[in-house]
């Protein structure tokens, strides 16, 4: 799930970069890229994968 969110954030960042769009002072290409990298890191950590280790 986080990988899909990251891909969407990277696509938005690319479109904003190509179009030269900045939504306010908070949402920029850099913030979208950072949020995308955070989602990739969470995905690689296994967060939201739907499995859990066996509990003893």
Describe the structure.
This protein is mainly alpha-helical and 56 residues long. Helices cover 62% and strands 0% of the residues. The protein contains two helices and no strands. It has helices at residues 2-19, 29-45. Helix 1 runs antiparallel to helix 2. The longest helix has 18 residues, at 2-19.
Q: Main attributes?
A:
56 residues, mainly alpha
What would you say about this model in short?
This protein is an all-alpha fold. 62% of the residues lie in helices and 0% in strands.
Please indicate the percent range of residues in DSSP E strands (runs of 2 or more): under 5%
Radius of gyration: 15 Å
Average residue pLDDT: 86
Structural shape: elongated
Residue ranges: pLDDT <50 for 5 or more in a row? none
Largest sheet: none
What's the total helix number? 2
What helical percentage do the residues reach? 55-70%
Write down how many β-strands occur, each being a DSSP E stretch of 2 or more residues. Answer: 0
Secondary-structure element pattern, one letter each: HH
End-to-end distance: 28 Å
Structural class by SSE content: mainly alpha
What is the fold's blueprint, element by element?
Blueprint: H1 2-19, H2 29-45
Helix pairs in contact: 1-2
